[in-house]
Amino acid sequence: MYNGHIDVVPAGNRELWSHDPYDCVERDGKLYGRGTCDMKGSVGCILYVAERIANGEIDRAPDLWLTFTVDEENENNGIIQLIQSDINVDYCIIGEPTELDIAIGHRGVSTHYIELFGQNCHIANSDGHRNAIHDAAKVIEWIEGKNTELRRENSLIGYPQWKVTQVAGGIKSNVNPEYCKITADRRFIFGETKDSLINDLELLKRTFPEMTIQYGLVSYVAPALEKESCRAVHDVQGAILATEGKRHAVKEFEAGCEQSFIQQKGIECIVFGPGSLKQAHVIDEFVSITQLIDYVVRVS
User: Fold this and answer.
1) 233 CB contacts (<8 Å, ≥6 apart)?
2) 5: number of CA atoms within 13 Å, CB side?
3) Best CA proximity match to 103, nearest among 117, 88, 92, 116
4) Are strands 250-253 and 102-106 parallel, antiparallel or unpaired?
5) What is the largest CA-CA distance in the chain?
6) Contact 96, 273 (CB under 8 A)
7) Rounded to 5°, angle at Cα 259 from 257 and 261
8) Catalytic sites, residue numbers
9) Cβ(77)–Cβ(226) below 8 Å
10) Strand boundaries in the chain, DSSP class E
11) Peptide bond into 211 cis (omega under 30)
12) Are 4 and 95 in contact (CB under 8 A)?
């Protein structure tokens, strides 16, 4: 089974792009556009391979399941629906960008929000009134301190991480802000759970008892790890060896993906695809055409 997601992150400020981010532009041996690397280049490759299988152009072609999901960049509703269906496969390859190395695991990831509540009044008369944005600044500093602690831990799939990614608050420049919302991203390793995050959020509340703080979880994806000796790694390494004459690195996937969901079905699963994670979610996202061609060769 090949799995890939077909949703993308927002393009951001389109004026910073060298072209319309939702047009695919070929330049200097690369395809530019939002989602070219993450991960429609990979999806396009596997569709081409499937077409060749259907046309009888690939000898001894295996039965191939194509599973394309949506909402991977948000709450994973597509994969949640998929794993409720009847899937009977030997193993799965998720085509996320690994630069054609084989990734056998990834950190867990949770998106959550933290709300701070102050008191609305004229800013000229705000002494003694809680300023939700000032409180949010203290919370952000506290989270960054916790993030430093977390980075001291390490594992086969990387280190834990807690980063603030969005802040929104206030209604006008001369009004004391009564509300501020922080959105954050938490990366987990094995040994940590959803309860671990909740415990940290409760500790945050206890650290600042003078503040009014509420929080909520938006999404949660468990960490994943496959055995390096599994059949999927063996077969992909065999294909690489046959075409390149050498093996590729086996490593962790630095970002999150939906590997752990597929493993819940008892299916072996690895991550293997064209493109570099450094080009995902950035202005002028691109994927190398050479890597797309090489990927087609490997998975054929």
Assistant:
1) 102, 104, 226, 227, 250, 270
2) 24
3) 92
4) parallel
5) 79
6) yes
7) 105
8) 7, 72
9) no
10) 2-5, 25-27, 30-32, 66-69, 91-94, 102-106, 108-117, 161-169, 179-188, 212-221, 224-225, 250-253, 268-271, 286-288
11) no
12) yes
Tokens of 230: 């599994």
- Angle of CA points 57, 60, 63, to nearest 5°: 95
Lookup: tokens for 293? 């061609």
Q: What is the sign of the dihedral through the CA atoms of 71, 39, 43 and 100?
A: negative
Per-residue burial over 115-151, b if 16 or more Cβ lie within 10 Å, else e, is: bbebeeeeeeebeeebbbbebbeebbeebeebbeebe
What's residue 233's pLDDT?
A: 96
Q: How would you classify the pairing of strands 30-32 and 224-225?
A: unpaired
pLDDT tens by residue, 228-254: 999 999 999 999 999 888 888 899 999
The pTM of the full predicted model, rounded to 2 decimals, is: 0.90
* Structural tokens at position 168: 């929104």
Query: What is residue 242's three-state secondary structure?
Result: helix
